[in-house]
Amino acid sequence: MIVTIDFNSNEAIYIQLRNQIIMGIANAQIHDGDNLPSVRELADNIGINMHTVNKAYTILKQEGYIKLDRRKGAVIALDYDKLRAIEEMKTDLRTILARAICKNINEEEIHEILTEVLNEFEG
Amino acid sequence: MIVTIDFNSNEAIYIQLRNQIIMGIANAQIHDGDNLPSVRELADNIGINMHTVNKAYTILKQEGYIKLDRRKGAVIALDYDKLRAIEEMKTDLRTILARAICKNINEEEIHEILTEVLNEFEG
DNA sequence: ATATTTGTTATACAGAAATTATAACAAAAT
DNA sequence: ATTTTGTTATAATTTCTGTATAACAAATAT
Q1: Are strands B66-69 and B73-76 parallel, antiparallel or unpaired?
Q2: What domain range includes position A95?
Q3: Is B68 found in the same domain as B35?
Q4: What DSSP letter does each residue of B74-104 carry, written as one string?
Q5: Which residues on chain B are in Cβ contact (under 8 Å) with A121?
Q6: Confidence (pLDDT) at B73
């Protein structure tokens, strides 16, 4: 899995990292049980500080995507707390859909766009 | 329209403000042509600095939700740049949908959740 | 046994972003 | 003439982000 950081983005590096790892899982590029690089290795690889990677990993653990083990390092371990995930999804969707409504994008179009973006994912 | 700021949120105040105003428009609580409070009035009202409100208004103007007029103050003025709005929506959706996929929420469920959140809006 | 690798924690520093505090300006309204 | 509007400027403070070192405990590898 390739990680690309945009150092000119207004999005923090550890947020970009977290999102890309989640993308990697959703795209089936990495799977449940797979090892992630160690914080030091990934930091070296990208050219950033260890603590920035550690921050991303800590969040991913807290959000139920990985487990951190002192012997095995970071391992993909998906926790399916569906109800919680759905609530968080709704919160995120509200802002996005409010914008869509303001921009005159109708319900049918929104569903079409959703389908389109969903089809970008593999697995 | 009531604006509520969560001072403990990790979301910046001016971002919360922007989102809530967009929500207000989507919910038909405020309409095209309506006046928003002046930067000073709203700042006083919420208990924050004038510049924080000004930042939110400047972004809303830049994103095509309001127009700023020295005589009339801030006025809702929706600019329907649909193509641009759709592209931005897709970008935002990618992260959200990646999370949904990781949490085993399937396509049908996602569409249902979308419909559910859309029905929260009035107008 | 020893050295290495793992996540974890602590501390310190620099830079950027967010927020506040004043202040002043020009244009328009009252 | 006074007030209100957005706008701009400057400075200070606080918080967030990212880096730099360093050390620790547990496990692995040699």
Answers
A1: antiparallel
A2: 82-118
A3: yes
A4: EEE-----HHHHHHHHHHHHHHHHHHHHHTT
A5: 97-98, 101
A6: 86
